[in-house]
Amino acid sequence: DIQMTQSPSSVSASVGDRVIITCRASQGINRYLAWYQQKPGKAPERLIYAASSLQSGVPSRFSGSGSGTDFTLTITSLQPEDFATYYCQQANSFPITFGQGTRLEIK
Amino acid sequence: QITLKESGPTLVKPTQTLTLTCTFSGFSLSSSGMGVGWIRQPPGKALEWLALIYWDDDKRYSPSLKSRLTITKDTSKNQVVLTMTNMDPVDTATYYCAHRPPGVNYFDYWGQGTLVTVSS
Fold it and tell me: 3-state class of B42 per DSSP?
């Protein structure tokens, strides 16, 4: 199985800050990576797919980059609605695996 | 507009079999490339992929749960059913179904989820 490791596990930030979340795969996954946002009590929502393609309707302050084993999700100019938990997911091979999540909290 | 909704019991006893139904609209599971997956999330924990069924009836399972899982589809009813045998309290989780678009195994639309508690 491909292990997905996110860092940090949690981060505190303020409105207007820039935050970078990283996701590392235990083996190369090309660019077959998605990022999801999950708010408490809600289903995950896809933000990014193919490492850097923005899901329709997602604000442009969200961006993704990376390939192979190392990926990043960057959120610029944090907004109050961005405080949530973020997950990466690899789609390179079965079994599909998710990272353990990064909780973004208000400072 | 694609929507999905999970249904099934909220409480099952240990050793029982869980049957969950995903009823969807806005796409056809007979269309080339389409798929529906199941993902679960124990309270306060991370997402875990369980199973995926494709338009051509190809099926994939999580290796760690493969012996307990069965995924089927009823294209005429726009439904996908997941069964999990021999339920245990550690299987307590919110179970989601999600749409897999043609191309790659991402999930772009998710159901609201259904919380299943395993307890005697």
Answer: coil
